[in-house]
Design goal:
alpha/beta; Carbamate kinase; Archaeosine Trna-guanine Transglycosylase, Chain: A, domain 4; 2 domains; five-stranded mixed sheet; 13 strands; elongated
């Protein structure tokens, strides 16, 4: 079994703001026991900026990108020192892997990265993966590493993704953990998109990443750091278990979902969302608005009326053309655009999360 464990920035520290060595020690002891049982573990860990702030004695996280990159450079070294120090006490070796978004958009780069991670695992090393914040050109490209964790799990062929969260799982309206979710779209009203002080993900990012993961056929657990990885791999959790799709994406659509860079965004109404969930194409009549500049054949992401990511696909029309035919139907679309097609995104090129 291959397990990817994602740890957010605020899991690295205690409520008092100190580095949570007890949590890292608990994590190391469980990883050791899992390895003895034949379970391999990869860790996707945020915390470079947080550790840099602590190491440099700063009062708050820097807002300017260049300063944040500089602080991350200091903090990443400290973060890996912490992992090495704690895991060494349990006879474990850790290896650093810093990735950027372009790795997952290039087959050769992705293959090289995957081979390096597999080589670490074959040597008994626990890979600790983070986004390379020092060279990233935009702020936390992967949404506090939630998406990085999904991409890593996809690339390495993981059997499960565990996301540790300060919330302890998905909470219902009464603040209680929802134990089991079969359809992620059914719990979207429960999602709160508030970011933490050092992280940038929040539950919105985690649920969005989870929607992608389950569409790939990957089970996901969102839970708190009081939970046990040993119990989670046995099917028990104090957090929320998200059931994988019974009909995971085929390889062509996995490539669209995981590797193709979106050039823009299309917002769709509820009727269109219901239609594409039933396997139908996206038609102009269901489009609400267009963002970005894209050409025919480019890949775009789809959002519903509430702003949740609901899909991704290759468009038949450019952004200007889509804007011209919003809410138009059939023959009117063909006449306006001088085309035989009427689908904005054909079902064959459409991934629904």
């Amino acid at each position: 079994m291959l397990l990817v464990v994602k740890i957010g920035s605020n899991l690295i520290q205690t409520e008092g703001g100190d580095i949570d060595l007890s949590f890292l020690s608990k994590l190391a002891s469980e990883v050791k026991l899992l390895k003895e049982r034949g379970v391999q573990v990869l860790i996707v860990s945020s915390g470079a900026v947080l550790c840099g702030v602590k190491k440099l004695g700063l009062k708050e996280r820097p807002r300017e990108l260049s300063l944040k990159q500089a602080v991350a450079g200091v903090g990443q070294a400290y973060l890996m020192h912490l992992y090495d120090m704690v895991f060494s006490n349990y006879g474990l070796f850790v290896g650093q892997a810093l990735l950027t978004a372009d790795v997952f958009k290039d087959k050769e780069k992705l293959s090289n990265a995957t081979q390096a991670l597999r080589a670490m695992l074959s040597m008994g090393v626990v890979p600790v993966i983070n986004e390379n914040d020092t060279v990233a050109v935009s702020e936390i490209l992967f949404g506090d590493n939630d998406f990085l964790a999904v991409h890593t799990a996809y690339a390495i062929g993981a059997n499960m993704l565990v996301i540790f969260s300060t919330a302890g799982g998905l909470l219902d309206h009464e603040g209680k953990v929802v134990p089991f979710v079969e359809d992620v779209s059914s719990v979207l009203p429960l999602v709160r998109g508030v970011n933490s002080s050092f992280g940038t993900g929040g539950m919105l990012s985690k649920i969005t990443a989870t929607r992608i993961a389950v569409s790939l056929g990957l089970p996901v657990v969102i839970t708190g750091k009081g939970d046990s990885l040993l119990e989670i791999v046995e099917g028990k959790t104090k957090g929320t278990y998200f059931k994988p799709s019974s009909k995971p994406l085929k390889e062509k659509k996995k490539v669209i979902a995981m590797m193709e860079e979106p050039k823009g965004a299309i917002y769709i109404d509820d009727g269109a969302y219901r239609a594409i969930k039933q396997g139908k194409s996206l038609l102009p009549a269901g489009v609400l608005k267009v963002e970005g500049c894209f050409s025919r054949g480019d890949t775009v992401v789809l959002y519903n009326q509430e702003g949740f990511l609901v899909g991704k696909g290759r468009v038949n029309f450019s952004s200007e053309e889509v804007a011209r035919v919003i809410k138009k139907k059939g023959d009117e679309v063909k006449k306006l655009l001088g085309t035989t097609k009427e689908e904005v995104v054909h079902a064959d090129n459409l991934v629904v999360f």
